[in-house]
Amino acid sequence: MDLKVVLVLAFLSALAITSTNGSIPRCCIGTKMITRKLLLKVDRWEPQYSDGICDIDALVVHIKGRRKPVCVDIRMQALLRRIKRLQPQQSKRI
User: How many Cβ atoms from other residues are within 10 Å of residue 61's Cβ?
Assistant: First the structure.
């Protein structure tokens, strides 16, 4: 085989591997308990359900000032909704 053909095939193979690697989702493999102070700093959250690729139900929580998200119990979602609903009301009182 010609060297150019081999190099093109190697390049295309490397491109295919790297492009499919980016689509693999990151799943929580365990959950942690977080304090009330951290709950107040939660910026956003996303539920993760076990009916898809991931193995456990969890809540992926993004906290202000932290790079990596934290995985918490899915039951914390109701509490986070209440906290976010009450935060604007508390800022009006001050």
Answer: 23
CATH number, domain of 40, equals 2.40.50.40
Alpha-carbon gap, residue 51 to 56, rounded angstroms: 8
C-alpha triplet 63, 73, 68: angle, nearest 5°: 30
> For residue 10, what pLDDT is reported?
83
* Percent of the chain whose predicted confidence (pLDDT) is above 90: 41
Angle ∠(59,49,44) on CA atoms, nearest 5 = 30
What is the predicted pLDDT for the residue at 63?
93
Chain centroid to CA 14? 27
> Kind of pairing, strands 42-48 and 58-63?
antiparallel
Within-domain flag for 58: yes
